[in-house]
Design a protein that fits this description.
single chain, alpha/beta, Rossmann fold, 2 domains, six-stranded parallel β-sheet, 13 helices
């Protein structure tokens, strides 16, 4: 059996996007097993995969800096030997790790991000607006470079996961709500350019809830997001707050039971893909042309307004040069509502 070391240290959504690729690779290459190195908190993303050993990286603690990376290298090497090292990240940290593996004469392969095309897509003048190679295919290309065959289906694979007693207690569903379709709402993102304005998002969610034919589950992080969603819940019929109450694994269990997940261009879209749930995604400063649409998700479920200045960023981190974030404000709540209704067949 061949043994591959695969590295994708961060970010949350990008690691999640690699999971369907790894799953389909292992199905098509039964003679291979993988050690996958990533941020320690992301281990639950891989728990359903056979022949994958997750190796946790603590990049702000014991694996911080050059000394920490050398420690990570030594620890990972003890899990070997490896037939090849595949770098799905290609950042300074993994460049350094690749060099160490190369010195041990282990074949190394890295992802090609096509930074020139990214720059052409996001520059303010003379944009080249064309669809770039999807990131899952770029991940798959690294496996192909290593000499393996891999054909991606790019299809959602619905996987209903059992709900734990703790999850059912958190949801606290009356019998009448259990038969309604569940709609996930994940209204937050890391950057302003990727976040639909809260007042518009709430207006859309309120219209969906007013129909009374679905159960809304509100997703977010602990702290401010959870507090805001608790406020929303008080104003919405048939809504439950999931934010801050469940583990990542339990959240995946719940997402697997959703009819539709409504998210930004964020990790929640990719979590939906992991369990085969359809995602309606809202895009502003970023654009599906960059190749980051969730695995198996379709353009018809993308909510956006085409503008000459879009996209201005690959990851949404750049401040709006107009200071207006018009790309998000131009999206009417009614447009989002209609897309969700069509996707969820409400």
């Amino acid at each position: 059996m061949k043994h591959l070391l695969v590295m994708r240290l961060s970010a949350f959504g990008d690691v999640a996007m690699s999971v369907p690729v790894v799953r389909e690779f292992l199905e098509q290459n039964p003679e291979v097993h993988i050690t996958f190195v990533s941020h320690f908190a992301l281990a639950p993303l891989f728990e359903s995969l056979e022949r994958v050993e997750f190796f946790p990286a603590y990049l702000r603690e014991q694996h911080k800096g050059l000394k920490g990376l050398c420690c990570l290298y030594r620890q990972v090497m003890r899990q070997g030997p490896y037939d090849a090292v595949l770098d799905l990240h290609s950042v300074i940290r993994t460049h350094f790790l690749r060099m160490l593996f190369h010195l041990q004469r282990i074949p190394v392969y890295k992802i090609h991000k096509d930074r020139r095309a990214r720059k052409a897509l996001t520059r303010r003048e003379d944009k080249v607006k064309r669809m770039m190679r999807p990131m899952p295919e770029r991940y798959a290309d690294v496996f192909r470079q290593a000499g393996f065959s891999l054909t991606l289906s790019n299809r959602l694979r619905k996987t209903l996961r059992p709900l734990s007693a703790h999850t059912l207690e958190v949801l606290d569903l009356p019998e009448a709500s259990q038969t309604k379709p569940w709609i996930g709402i994940a209204p937050f993102a890391r950057y302003t350019g990727k976040t639909y304005p809260p007042q518009k998002m709430f207006a859309a969610v309120k219209k969906i809830a007013a129909q009374g034919n679905c159960l809304l589950l509100l997703f977010g992080a602990k702290g401010h997001e959870q507090t805001e969603l608790e406020r929303w819940k008080e104003l919405l019929p048939d809504a439950r707050v999931v934010a801050g109450k469940l583990s990542l694994s339990e959240e995946l269990d719940v997402i697997s039971h959703l009819k539709v997940m409504v998210s930004m261009d964020s990790a929640n879209m990719h979590l939906a893909s992991l369990v085969g749930t359809r995602a309606v995604s809202v895009w502003g400063a970023t654009h599906p042309f960059a190749g980051f649409l969730g695995y198996g998700q379709t353009p018809c479920d993308v909510v956006e307004v085409e503008m000459d200045c879009r996209p201005c960023s690959i990851f949404g981190s750049k401040p709006c040069f107009k200071s207006t974030y018009e790309c998000m404000h131009a999206i009417a709540p009614e447009t989002l509502v209609q897309t969700v209704e069509q996707a969820a067949d409400l």
